């Protein structure tokens, strides 16, 4: 958290005042929310016959965000990363809960701005805040649980990929990692797309909402392409081939040249793009359906027999040093 | 966290090894869990026509637990406090997600024991771990999201109480606060019921599972009787009268004598007993149904018109200094 938020201009607030200050930023929930913040539990009405899709994600000061983040960006990112997983599962996000832990001296203004950044994304994503928790802690952290729904026949897992499936990817890679580096170097322009990708990633909800009709497996790229593709392959008991020339890189990443851009695109984490394994016959319809929603899907490789992950360059296979991406303990 | 857990006997583990070490302690989920830990999201099958009941709760090292807690007790308590809210809402707990934040040097043994304490309670409560998240942080914290279900006509909120309703309470009060004091003083015997109430509170799930058939409103006592009853009254726009002689106190609390026991029973937090407002005609059936499940319900007062909270002693009303209970920021 930026140091200035630790200044105490007002006496520290009680837990209940903080809850009220925070929840005030959020729009009233829809008719599917019977009880929301302020009750012991949230009561929500699931769509009949659909599966419940749930996910918890956490961002911690100094680990997932630094003092370079504005409060709005912290709030946005905490929700964005948890929504992204729901999109990868082909789910429609509906509701979310937030556990906020923070030092005592955090100012009202900081908390309001944090709530505002989260609330703005919540409105765009049409998800309702339905519950939360405040706690004192020595560092700021936000734990977001997202709840969504998927038709049973459309819910995606990591384990559904089969040899022959195409690998389709949303957006472009490497931007968030480059943005992180620039923020660390202090050379960041906030208008840079790479810096925006790091500060306020966009969960690919439009694609997630239709992905279940076309894809056989899905994952979101939080830890880097190689590592997350590795997870998908492991769970599906398959291998994969990636075509280097087909991997879309963020413009600023590509501009760095091949040697510098490749590690960012392959192993840079936090892009929150979605990767799907899609049976061949459904590739074209999926790409068209995404395009109608303004989303580009790139075909970056294919699922193969075995366990190996191979990268194909213009002159044949390129050796992969390891699958390692971003590991918060690594 | 106890200092000995910070000793590094082995090199720090990666995120994925930790996840595997943690999830290993938990039993396989039932057929209502289609995807659990290891996928991007949990996929679970809700009971048709029931409401989803969700709650997030967080416990933080140094705020909600101290070095006096064994790892098993930390794991137990994190899940217990989140389950308790579901019971207060008249819900059947089904699934839960855990976000674990911890310093790098935490040992495998500590993590396994923490998982074991949580897994034991999960088995008793018949809830399945369906997802989680690991993150590095400077202090240990556990954020638990519990997901449960309630029939729409049986889901309880804080806002359902009406003048004339009886106030029914599970168990007895003050034990957890006394246990906390004894642990702080270093004078705790671990076999003491008060100390157990602090270290490993028992969520009243047997009562929660039937409460919706009888009660009109419910809340769990995490912040102390007066404060939590205050919340219930505020949301229901009613007042309440408590009969001092009827308030069940933990044996060790009562043994302290009237002057010392009263603040513990009225304002001591963390007992995780359940308080219900119950229409008169349903009091006796509710008490009998609870008794058949081995649970005692005490009638401690009633809901009245107005907004005031009054405590009735043998010689008439006893002044209440304030409603304040346990506020983590207070």
Number of helices of chain A: 10
Biggest interface? A-B, 73 and 73 residues
Distance between termini of chain A?
23 Å
Tally of DSSP β-strands of chain A: 13
- The oligomeric state of the chains shown is homodimer
Rounded to an integer, what's the Rg of chain A over CA atoms?
Answer: 20 Å
Uncertain stretches of chain A: 1-12, 323-330
Reported for the largest beta sheet of chain A, the result is: 7 strands, mixed
Overall residue-averaged pLDDT value of chain A: 90
Which structural class do the helices and strands of chain A define? alpha+beta
Side-by-side strand order of the widest sheet of chain A: 8-10-7-11-9-12-13
Strand residue percentage of chain A: 15-25%
Helix-strand pattern of chain A:
HEEEHEHEEEHHHEHEHHEHEEE
Q: Shape of chain A, please?
A: globular
Summarize the amount of helix of chain A as a percent range: 25-40%
């Amino acid at each position: 958290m930026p140091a200035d938020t630790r200044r105490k201009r007002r006496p520290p607030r009680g837990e209940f005042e903080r809850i009220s200050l925070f929840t005030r930023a959020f729009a009233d929930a829809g008719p599917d929310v019977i009880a929301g913040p302020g009750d012991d539990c949230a009561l929500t009405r699931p769509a009949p016959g659909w599966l419940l899709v749930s996910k918890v994600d956490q961002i911690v000061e100094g680990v997932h965000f630094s003092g370079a983040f504005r409060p709005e960006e912290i709030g946005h990112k905490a929700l964005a990363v948890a929504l992204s997983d729901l999109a990868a599962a082909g789910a429609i996000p509906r509701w979310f809960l937030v556990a906020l832990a923070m030092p005592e001296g955090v100012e009202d203004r900081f908390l309001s701005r944090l709530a505002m950044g989260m609330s703005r994304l919540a409105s765009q994503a049409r998800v309702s805040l339905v519950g939360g928790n405040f706690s004192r802690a020595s560092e700021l952290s936000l734990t977001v649980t997202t709840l969504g729904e998927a038709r049973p026949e459309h819910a995606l897992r990591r384990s559904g990929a089969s040899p022959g499936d195409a690998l389709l990817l949303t957006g472009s890679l490497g931007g968030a990692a480059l943005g992180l580096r620039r923020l660390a170097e202090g050379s960041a322009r906030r208008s840079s797309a790479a810096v925006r990708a790091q500060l306020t990633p966009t969960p690919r909800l439009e694609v997630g909402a239709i992905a279940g009709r076309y894809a056989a497996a899905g994952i979101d790229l939080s830890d880097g392409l190689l590592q997350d593709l590795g997870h998908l392959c492991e769970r599906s008991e398959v291998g994969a081939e990636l075509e280097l020339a087909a991997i879309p890189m963020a413009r600023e990443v590509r501009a760095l040249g091949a040697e510098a851009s490749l590690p960012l695109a392959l192993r840079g984490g936090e892009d929150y793009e979605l990767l799907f394994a899609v049976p061949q016959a459904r590739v074209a319809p999926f790409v068209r359906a995404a395009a109608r929603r303004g989303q580009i899907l790139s075909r970056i490789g294919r699922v193969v027999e075995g366990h190996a992950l191979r990268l194909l360059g213009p002159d044949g296979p390129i050796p992969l040093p390891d699958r390692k991406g971003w590991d918060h303990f690594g």
